[in-house]
Amino acid sequence: MNDLDALLALLTPEGRALLDEVRDTDPARELAVATRLRRTHPAELVSAALGQARLRQRAVAKFGAEDAGRMFFTPNGVEQSTRASVAAYRAERLKGLGVTSVADLCCGIGGDAVALARAGIRVLAVDRDPATAAAARANAEALGLGLGELIEVREADVTEVDTGGYDAVFVDPARRGGRGRIFDPEAYSPPLSWAVEAARKAPLGAALKVAPGIPHEAVPEDAEAEWISDGGDVKEAVLWFGTAPGAVRATLLPGPRTLLGTGLPDPEVRTPGRYLYEPDGAVVRAHLVAEVAEQVGGGLLDATIAYVTSDELRPTSYATAYEITDRMPFNVKKLKALLREREVGTLTVKKRGSAVEPEELRRKVKPQGPNAATVFMTRVAGAPTMLIGHPVR
Fold first, then answer.
1. CA separation (Å) from 361 to 335, 357, 365, 389?
2. pLDDT tens across 72-106, in order?
3. What is the DSSP string of 302-352?
4. Computed over its alpha carbons, how large is the radius of gyration of the chain?
5. What is the spatial distance between Cα 186 and Cα 172, in angstroms, rounded to a whole number?
6. Going by DSSP bridges, is the β-strand pair 205-210/168-171 parallel, antiparallel, or unpaired?
7. pLDDT tens across 244-285, in order?
8. Is 369 left (phi over 0), alpha (psi -120 to 50) or beta?
């Protein structure tokens, strides 16, 4: 049974009832549950229900338990869909531009369409994959968003859709192929150049979702580039049209807290001070480490490493501060001896500019004891160095 047939089967009364029955199935008991259910239900339907239950469990991290428990997913849809908090933030930005209608191109299973509709924005959601479009349609219905009123789902090639009747467009091109992630924006489906042209035609604005690793030189001059993290994890980059051409920003969720680029030159390299600041990943991706360094009165440990050092403890929303107690050249034996002396049993290992893997180091030093510490494996003025400390509460 292919993805579309499985989804359509689950939308029948029998399929929905079966989904309710297997909702909280423990993966360790799947075989026993499947064996029992196949006595009274078609084997393919039982497999589809158990598979959907697994997808819903995976989707909780992105959509929350309440929504994930009602939504329908495809395997790729769970992997590639936008986290609900990020989609809600983006929907509010579009709403703030005066947008009342959006053409959501490459809509996937409808996560962004749902966020837009919940913000009161009318959505045309388009995807060329039949199973994916069917999932988006089912999700609009399952979440009570007035299918046909707030959300219209269309199975079509986005390059052939007329978006002229909509205030804005949102494009989320496919960035995965048969060999995994695609890093060349022109290899996206559709290519970034097509998405940019579609964005420029939108009356009020547009948002193009791209990979966080997009080269800054690939950002069009008339676009604003925004990198977004949620809970400290970088989730995506967005190219905005109709906002502030040439602007660069890093946005941290929850919040939102937004750091705007001011065009500062690279910070100077300084001798390690009492405090180390680890900028949020969105700040690093947006190349706004200099703005953080200015906020904390600091400089860089190394010209090529995004760690900021300072003798002052200054509050900033865009970096985590650590008090550094020890500094030593990279030496596993000396680190092990120091940790034993300090009775460190909980060791957090962070690295930038080091080839050593955190788990490998943790195995070698065998931390034991009631205390906690953080070790940074990095470079200081080009030399492999270990800095030991703890986060400032």
1. 10, 6, 6, 16
2. 999 888 888 999 999 999 999 999 999 999 999 99
3. STTS--EEESS----TTEEEEEEEEEEES-HHHHHHHHHHHTEEEEEEEES
4. 24
5. 13
6. parallel
7. 999 999 999 998 999 999 999 999 999 999 999 999 999 999
8. left
b (16+ CB within 10 A) / e for 55-67:
bbbebeebbeeeb
| Spatial distance between the Cα atoms of 101 and 239, rounded to a whole number of angstroms | 19
Per-residue tokens: 330: 């990279």
Could you tell me which of 381, 278, 375 has the C-alpha nearest to residue 326?
375
- 295 in Cβ contact with 314 (< 8 Å): yes
| Identity of residue 282 | A
Q: What are phi and psi of 26, to 5 degrees?
A: -70, 130
How many residues are present in the chain?
393
Rounded Cα distance between 262 and 219, Å, is 17
Residue 189: DSSP 8-state:
B
Amino acid at 150: L
Q: What is the largest CA-CA distance in the chain?
A: 72
